[in-house]
Fold each of these.
Amino acid sequence: MGQLPAPRVTPSRAFSSSGVDYAGPIQVRTSKGRGQKSSKGYICLFVCMSTKAIHLECVTDLTSQAFIAAFRRFVARRGHCSHLWSDNGTNFVGAAKELRRMFEVGKNNMAKEIAELLANDGTTWHFIPPKAPNFGGLWKAGVKSAKQHLYRISGATRLTYEEMTTLLAQIEACLNSRPLCQMDDTLETLDPLTPGHFLIGEPLIGLPENDYVNKNVNLLTRWQFIQNRIQNFWRRWQAHYLQTLQQRYKWQRVVRSPSIGDIVIIKEEDLAPCKWLLGKIITLHPGSEKLVRVVSVRCKRNVVMKRPLSKLILLPIKPEPY
């Protein structure tokens, strides 16, 4: 296996170096009400190469102009993007040519100082080799996280552009709230490091809402229906993400047993979106064969829970010796 590219391991501002890809299609309605037609839309995903933060935009087609509009919204909210990686899609290639043309026109029509500033602020576009999707594994993983569960919760539902933008923004917050590693082991401030810390300096949170998962969707208002979709997405994606952190292989070697003081994520099914339950192991409960399968965990406010290891994920995830 080769070394990671330099942007993946070089500290930088969030989204200074980014990857981009499309997911879809999705059906977007023109307006509310019965009988309104729907058309194809797409999800434009930007992922930060260094922090793995994700930014989602809803676009109406696959043209270069639609992508440039999404790119302008992305830069306006996330700051200048110095380097952008993508595959060789025709919309990306066309957008790269259009951006280069705009920079060249700007340098010809403006004063020298402004021309130099434009040249310095230009985005360098990088294309991965053709027929090599594994070179874009970072944004392909982000597309899978957003697209797979969004399709499962949406089904045949048709949302307006405004509703789809709201849904994608909340899905983006869910994806950017995932724990990366622990920052400290103090119970009073037991918070994991997340991509949201690199964006706003603190964890991303969702506004408190009632539980709409188990309610009849035919009796919900449009806003309550959107929250029902968000809560369904959160439960599906959280369970899938935690499983990826807890890979189990054949017992060919002895793995490290948990120890007192380890920070863990506790699997809970009824947590609100963007909420993660963390705790510190305080007691081990070994079985008759001296293997630990159950531990006691202390959470915030001195709440003690007894849980099996199958419901816990250690943080940070350390590579096991071979």
Note: Helices lie at 6-9, 64-78, 90-109, 112-121, 137-154, 161-175, 195-200, 222-244.
Amino acid sequence: MNKQAEIQTRTPRQIAELYFDCWQRKDFTDLRALLADDCHFAGVLGEASGPDDFLRGLQGMASGTDSLEVRARVADDSDVITWFDLGMAGAPATAVANWTHVEDGLITQVRVTFDPREILAAG
């Protein structure tokens, strides 16, 4: 099976699992192939468009991540919601909701929401 066919057979849930696995490993090589050319990220701390900008932002978050514990994940045919606790900058873990939208085996959108006050105060 070629690489593109392999990517397209992954479920949105598997893609979201890889997204968080790469974040925890702080290695985004595997994730790059799963980002659509026009992917977009929007979150409390910023926005990013396109794979390079997207990965640059996620690498920045990962470099400041002390802990990341996934609590729950719910998925359907194209959307995944991941609820997780994020520890950054020595702040207490913050509850985060991450919505990942997948089309044709590629991440097209990610939206993240959380209360950043403790992270910003610690940073």
Note: The longest helix spans residues 12-25.
